[in-house]
Structure formats: C-alpha cells, structure tokens
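Hey, resending since the last one bounced:
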Amino acid sequence: MNNLIEKLRQAKSPSRELGDEVLLACGWKGYDPQGSGILVSHWTDPNKKSWPTKFRPNPTEDINAAMELVSKWADIELYISVWGTDYSVTAVDIIDHTDKILGRGTSTTPAIAICLAVLETQINK
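The structure tokens again:
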C-alpha cells in the first residue's frame, strides 16, 4: 500500500491505472482470481455489486467516486481545504470522533487527495 501512496503523491493528474489500484486496495475485485493479471469483464465492489469494466469508477478522477471510498466509515469526519493563488492544492483530513487524524492527503486534485487520505486511514485504522 505504501508504494501506491507514493505513486499517488507523485501524480499530477488522474489516471485509470492508479484509479484501478486504489479500487483494488479498497476491496474491489477486478482481476482474474487465478492471478493471471487479465482484466475481467466485470468488477465487484466491496458490497458485492457488479460493475461492467467500462463503467467502473475512477476515484483519482471523479470526486464522487473518491467520496464513496470514505463512506464506508460511519464514525469519521472529512475536512477539505484548498489553497494557493489559483486554488491549486487540496488537502484532506479524515478525522475520528476524538479529533484524531486517521489519514491525510495533499494533491493538486481533490479526488487524488481524498484517495491518499483514504489509503492512509486504512493503514492507521
């Protein structure tokens, strides 16, 4: 997971490949279970809902898809701030009910910042 976090930190823009890696890290299934690495025709989300491959979300590009990754935790709060002269940096904190920061993400895009915070939360929770 640390390798994926580092890739996201270095990303300057969304990517389908990174989006798929984030989905897999968050419990989605989308590759042949025999480990051949062949992409299957449908992906399955953690709730067992099937998604045709071409319609699977890309959480590095779509802020709604990134927010869906956060929604699995009922006892957290999400803080998003944007700064820079052209609002070019987004920071996201995922905080528990005791105000402890579980995950933090900073990126040039809000969706990638959320993905980073989600992955750090998975490590820390």
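The chain has one domain: 2-124.

Sorry for the duplicate.
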